[in-house]
Write a structure and sequence with these properties.
Helix content: over 70%
Largest sheet: none
Radius of gyration: 45 Å
Strand content: under 5%
Number of helices: 1
């Protein structure tokens, strides 16, 4: 049975349609490659950001630890200096004689 005349489509639009689909194939491939490359870049950035955060947290912990150790060392030095000063004062000042009770 032959096609109805209203359904007939000339060959030129069909050629255009085929050409359009043929041209879309490399565009899609290129788009896919670019999307994968960009996704790889984002993944790499995410990994580096995580490493940076981890390193930053470690540096903060070390800084806090060093600060604590410095404070402890400073307190120990103060205590040692105070003890040395007290020892020097005791050594320099002889024991005071007890005063005799006053007679009434």
């Amino acid at each position: 049975k032959p096609p109805k005349i209203q359904r007939w489509v000339p060959p030129i639009p069909l050629e255009r349609k085929r050409r359009k689909f043929v041209l879309m194939r490399p565009r899609r491939a290129k788009s896919r490659e670019e999307r994968d490359a960009y996704q790889h870049l984002l993944d790499r950035r995410r990994i580096l950001r995580g490493q940076h955060k981890k390193a930053s947290a470690t540096r903060k912990q070390l800084g806090a630890r060093n600060k604590e150790l410095a404070a402890i060392a400073q307190e120990a030095a103060k205590a040692k200096a105070a003890a040395a000063a007290a020892a020097a004062a005791a050594k320099a000042k002889p024991a005071a004689k007890k005063a005799a009770p006053k007679k009434k």
